[in-house]
Amino acid sequence: xxxxxxxxxxxxxxxxxxxxxxxxxxxxxxxxxxxxxxxxxxxxxxxxxxxxxxxxxxxxxxxxxxxxxxxxxxxxxxxxxxxxxxxxxxxxxxxxxxxxxxxxxxxxxxxxxxxxxxxxxxxxxxxxxxxxxxxxxxxxxxxxxxxxxxxxxxxxxxxxxxxxxxxxxxxxxxxxxxxxxxxxxxxxxxxxxxxxxxxxxxxxxxxxxxxxxxxxxxxxx
Length: 221
Known about the structure:
Layout: E1 6-9, E2 16-17, H1 24-33, H2 38-47, H3 53-66, H4 71-77, E3 82-83, H5 87-96, E4 100-108, H6 109-115, E5 123-131, E6 137-141, H7 148-161, E7 168-172, H8 178-183, E8 186-190, H9 195-200, E9 203-205, H10 214-218
Parallel strand pairs: 1-4, 1-7, 4-5, 7-8, 8-9
Antiparallel strand pairs: 2-3, 5-6
């Protein structure tokens, strides 16, 4: 049996790695607008309260739309991103042990569908892009479950499934995971890019293989 009944995973930077540490947002901004560094500037504006999260998402996606992005070209632009080794085996092992698995991420659901179509997550909470019949961007929906929303979602999922928070775990890597890390019963900082997350996490794991998470989540190798 798993040590935990419910485990939430971040995706971008955790189970999916980009070139030079780029997130999917940086990869797509670089491909369609040539300015990946705009993510840092917009994140700073978000932190200062000058942009809402939904406005931040909209600025990025509108830039791709205005550059003529389609579903096909977005999927093609995701090619520099890769699923980390052992991700499938790790999640399948946890699922076989009876664990509820959730993707709680600020990435795009299209990226998960493209790179990990056979994932065993019970539910995926991510940003969404909808496409017109001709493949152009028709609409989008910013997830309410990034940043502090991740923690709120974990509490709601635990309550819905009758799981004590002490029996929940979270695996993530970034500063937007700090809130949920404080809420989860156990947190793994996996290849972390945030010193604050490392300080909060119960354990830090640095590895290019997701299977190295299993001893911490199952109690066995």
